[in-house]
Amino acid sequence: MLGGLSFPAIALLMAAGVLLDLWWGEVRRWHPLVGFGNLAIALEHRLNQGGLRFARGVLAWVLAVLPLTALAALLIWALALPAAQAVTHTLMLYFCLGLRSLREHNLPIANALAQNDLPNARRLTSYIVSRDTTSASEIELTKASAESLLENGNDAVFGTLFWFMIAGGPGAVLFRMANTLDAMWGYRTPRLLQFGCAAARIDDALNYIPARLTALSYVLLAPGLQGKRRAWQCWRTQAPAWDSPNAGPVMSSGAGALGVQLGGAAIYHGEVEYRPVLGDGPPATGADIQRAWQLVVRTTALWLAVAGAAAALMALRTLTEITHA
Fold first, then answer.
1. Which of 102, 76, 95 has the alpha carbon at shortest distance from 17?
2. What job does this protein perform (predicted)?
3. Which of 42, 82, 181, 247 is the right S-S partner for 199, CB 3.0 to 4.6 Å?
4. pLDDT of 1 over the 50 cut
5. Which pLDDT belongs to residue 4?
């Protein structure tokens, strides 16, 4: 039981949360994660100064995440009616998911590239990545979008679903807040290197299992036996060279599943950063953005199917025990 709900109920609510996200998308005003981002900015400005930057970063993380997670758990506990608990779990998951947002931010890039509208594609891509897109080519824009889709499929979807299965709505809230702080504070710049270290390491820990389940899912959903072997081989050989212990498995297996080449050089803050190559095949082109989106959608369906099957088996086992009691 979790917050008064069984795992079969949690699996059902997980599907409901995904459907709500696909139907409504992100709320345009008063989004909780936007408010949390503003809180993170205020804490960083207030605490990231003077000495003991690492300790200050730990304190900022605790102040940002733990009270809100506790509040979410307390809200679930305080609700007496199971139906109210179920609705609250579902809404918490809905606010933490970003599946439809991935589509809304990335497919317009594919459409712009299909129309040979590089200026618009560069503008749209600049909204979702921190690299410089001012003079990016079609291949560079495609790599940026596809990498974002594959990695954020884990960060904004599968990691959230994993922690929802573990701890319901409060688990999803905890994960998304931790992931948001890593995205805001986890940069290796002079200002954030020490302050954001704790946020980056905590996110690595929370994401360790979800990222590998995501990578495995990409392998399983690669087309044909050859595609699955290619995705697995890319994961095993290319992921260790990637700086991030979780992005490496996710993006290498995803690129291998798509049969394209990602990674390589990219411009960050005016300097060229030479990143390891990901995947195996020709350089990605605009049409591969749509294929990356479809891989994320199929992976979501796979996770929902596995959770549903597990819930059905648990319910059947319970029914059998009751019948033979």
1. 95
2. Converts cobyric acid to cobinamide by the addition of aminopropanol on the F carboxylic group.
3. 181
4. no
5. 55
Domain assignment of residue 274, given as a range:
7-323
Q: Is residue 177 classed as helix, strand or coil in its secondary structure?
A: helix
Within a domain: residue 133? yes
Looking at the domain assignment, is residue 1 inside a domain? Answer: no
The CA distance from 259 to 256, in Å, is: 5
DSSP letters along 89-124, please? HHHHHHHH--HHHHHHHHHHHHHHHHTT-HHHHHHH
Residue that is written with structure tokens 């809180």 in the block: 39
> CB count, 10 Å around CB of 309?
11
Residue 301: partners with Cβ closer than 8 Å, 6 or more residues away: none
DSSP for 13-54, please give it.
HHHHHHHHHHHH-S-SSS-HHHHHHHHHHHHHHHHSSSS-HH
Number of domains in the chain: 1
Q: CA angle, corner 207, sides to 303 and 100, nearest 5?
A: 50
In the chain, % of residues over pLDDT 90: 67
- What tokens does 307 get? 């959770």
Say how far apart CA 90 and CA 83 lie, in whole Å: 11
Contact 170, 76 (CB under 8 A): yes
CB 133 within 8 A of CB 122: yes
What are 81's two structure tokens? Answer: 């009616």
**Calpha distance 270→197 (Å, rounded):** 23
